[in-house]
Design a protein that fits this description.
By secondary structure, the protein is an alpha/beta fold. It is about 35% helix and about 20% strand. Helix 1 packs parallel to helix 3 (about 115-130) and helix 3 runs parallel beside helix 4 (about 150-160). The chain is globular. The structure holds iron/sulfur cluster (SF4). Iron/sulfur cluster (SF4) binds near residues 2, 53, 58, 108 and 109.
């Protein structure tokens, strides 16, 4: 999953939701409610291979053909259970019985689905049908496909529905991007993709920082990271969501990673804030 927020997946406790292909519930204590996850990558395929990725059995590739009728039926059924049924009362502790968001956050890159835009349309339509227009809509993405017109069309739909993007940027040197995200990518292209994204839809940068072989990110590492954000135009960005690693990675290479302290993360946040960006830290 692209999100690095510490979450408690509860689908295995709910018989009605067991076996769904595209829809999954996640309880987040931090967010204080349930997030409705939309997974367009049930094949666990991503074009990146991040060292901290929490997808078990992650493979290289793209999303499969999406059966929109199944997506619609699953989401309709779950929203019905949430809004009209007793799902929240049965499954969510008191104080967490609310829908916090609907998030495209899959076991791979959501925008690699050819039906990405059509899937947004399904979600927007059902959100309205269940009277949930106030529930935020989010896309969690590695941003790698932002140059494609069909993805930009999806971003426009998301923006029109009041949605937002969480766009992954973890590093700003090509070697570091390759090491952390498992992809060969020119940092300038990363800036360009971020800039395109922000031009189409309100965009937060989502960043995961950690120790690698015990070493904290160096000053040069942070400088290069900031260059990517500055290259995209910081005034176009909503801000930065800065995460530590909260859950174990499922990937080979996870042994390189260990968490930064809360103080170390705050020091990095201060560097980012000095560039005029809003930063929210989640150790
Ligand atoms: S972008 Fe990275 S963290 Fe997200 S699914 Fe792909 S490999 Fe995993």
């Amino acid at each position: 999953m692209i999100s690095t927020i510490p979450l408690l997946t509860i689908s295995n406790h709910d018989r009605d939701l067991a076996g769904l292909t595209y829809v999954y519930p996640v309880l987040s204590r931090r967010a204080g409610g349930v997030s409705v996850g939309i997974n367009l990558n049930p094949n666990n395929a991503c074009n990146w291979h991040c060292a901290y990725c929490q997808v078990p059995g992650l493979v290289r590739g793209k999303a499969p053909v999406i059966d929109l009728a199944v997506l619609e039926a699953e989401l309709s059924g779950f929203l019905s259970a949430l809004v009209r049924g007793d799902w929240l009362a049965v499954n969510a502790p008191e104080g967490m019985r609310q829908i916090r968001d609907i998030a495209f956050s899959g076991n791979g890159e959501p925008t690699s689905a050819e039906a990405f835009t059509a899937a947004i349309d399904v979600v927007v339509r059902l959100r309205a049908a269940f009277g949930l227009d106030d529930v935020p809509l989010r896309l969690i993405t590695n941003g790698s496909l932002m140059a494609q017109a069909r993805v930009q069309a999806g971003l426009d739909r998301l923006a029109a529905a009041g949605g937002e993007v969480w766009f992954k940027v973890d590093a700003g040197e090509a070697a570091a991007i390759e090491r952390i995200n498992g992809v060969s990518l020119d940092p300038q292209a990363l800036s360009r993709h971020l800039s395109i994204c922000a031009a189409h839809c309100p965009t937060w940068v989502q960043t995961c920082m950690f120790r690698w072989d015990g070493e904290v990110p160096s000053a040069a590492f942070i400088d290069a990271y900031l260059e990517v954000l500055l290259g995209a135009g910081p005034e176009r960005l909503q801000g930065v969501l800065l995460y530590g690693i909260a859950r174990p990675s499922m990937q080979v290479g996870a042994s390189h990673l260990s968490p930064l302290s809360a103080v170390e993360l705050e020091q990095i946040a201060d560097r980012i804030k000095q560039k005029g960006l809003t930063v929210r830290v989640s150790p």
